[in-house]
C-alpha cells in the first residue's frame, strides 16, 4: 500500500487545528481526490443531459449495499460492482431500444430503489446499517479507499486527456462523431462505467441523498461563469476543490459541527448562487 505520509504532512502545514488530526487529513486527501473527479464528470453529465442517470446510479448504491449486507459481502465491494453493472445496463438498453433516455433511466431508477427496499424490508437489522450510506460519512475513509481513489484519479485523468473532445462531440452529435471514426459505443460504455465508480465513492462521502449535487452543482456553476467549453471544465474543478476544502474545514468547527458531506454541498450551492449574481453585476457596471 502506498505511503501517504508526505501528503498528510503537507495538509498538516495548513494552520488549522482540525487538520492536525490524522482522520481529518485522510478525509481531506480523499475529498481532494474525489471532488475534481466528480466535477470533471459533472461537466460531461450536463453536456450529455444525464443528471437523472447519475441520480439513478446513486440510488443503485442503496440496492448494492442492501445486497452486500444480505449476502455477507462487504458493502464497499458490492456497492461499486452493482453500480457499474446498473450503469452499463442503462447504456446497453438505451442503445438497443427505441425508448427515450429518460424512460430507460426512470425504469432503472425505480427498479434499483424497489429492489433495495425489498431487501431491507426482508432482513432485520439492515435498516440501521443503511443510514451510513443514506447520509455519507467522509470521516471514516480508510487508506485502502484512498489508494483506490488515487488509482481511479489517474485512470480518469488519462480518460479525460484522451476523450474529452470526443465525448463533447458525441454529446453534440453522435452521428457526426461516428462518421469521423469515433467509436461512440465504446466511449459511452467507458464513460458510464467511470461515472458509476465515481458516484459510488461520492455516496461514501455525501450519501445517496446528495450524490447528484456533488456532480451537478460545480458543473452548473461553471456553465454560468465560463465563456468556453474548456473554461467550463476548469471552473468546475475550481468550484469542486474549493467547496471540498471549505466544506470539510467548516464542518469541523465547534461553532458549526455539521455533516461534512452536507456542508461541502452547501458551499458549492453558495458558489452557484454567486454565479447567478456575478454576471448581472458585471453587466450593470459595464
Residue stretches low in confidence (pLDDT < 50, at least 5 long) are none
Percent helix among the residues?
Answer: over 70%
- Beta-strand content: under 5%
Series of secondary-structure elements, N-terminal to C-terminal = HHHHHHHHHHHH
Task: Determine the mean pLDDT.
Answer: 87
Helix/strand class = mainly alpha
Number of helices: 12
Shape: globular
Largest sheet: none
What is the end-to-end distance? 55 Å
The total count of strands amounts to: 0
* Estimated radius of gyration: 19 Å
Characterise this structure.
- With 286 residues, the protein is mostly helical.
- Helix content is 81%, strand content 0%.
- The protein is built from twelve helices and no strands.
- It has helices at 5-12, 22-47, 51-70, 75-96, 101-122, 126-135, 143-172, 174-179, 184-206, 211-225, 229-251, 260-285.
- Helix 3 (51-70) packs across helix 4 (75-96), helix 4 runs antiparallel to helix 5 and helix 10 packs across helix 11 (229-251).
- The longest helix is centred in the middle third of the chain and has 30 residues, at 143-172.
- 42% of the residues are buried.
Q: What is this structure, in a nutshell?
A:
The protein is an all-alpha fold and 286 residues long. It has twelve helices and no strands.
Secondary structure elements and pairings:
Elements: H1 5-12, H2 22-47, H3 51-70, H4 75-96, H5 101-122, H6 126-135, H7 143-172, H8 174-179, H9 184-206, H10 211-225, H11 229-251, H12 260-285
